Amino acid sequence: MITQQASIKHADRDLYAREKVLNSAINAVDISSGWEAYVEIFDAFYADHVEVNDGTESGPVFGRERIRAVLLKFLVPIHVMAEIGGLSVQIRETPVLGDTRARHIRPGQSI
Fold this sequence. Notes:
The chain is mostly helical. It has one domain. Helix content is 55%, strand content 4%. The protein contains four helices and two strands. The protein has helices at residues 2-28, 36-45, 64-83, 101-104; strands spanning 51-52, 61-62. It has a two-stranded antiparallel sheet with strand order 1-2. Strand 1 and strand 2 form a beta hairpin. The mean pLDDT is 78.
């Protein structure tokens, strides 16, 4: 049991480190330069079987291709407004307390 708890704590630290790298990558991109870097980040950090809820669909969206379409529907208009219209865009990171690997991701499953 102690080994399993230590493994979960190590996995949580690993997940935290990956989330920091992911958030840093997202914050480093300038949307006025293009939307492509965000799609590259998505491809690098998320598995093919990822599930998201975009807040507008009737339910969760499954799979990288369907999520990429939702992501582009969001990113392309923002890019156009930033590049052509001069819109200023800032991304803020807000930690979600209590979000742990053990609760949301099965062992051996990638994010």
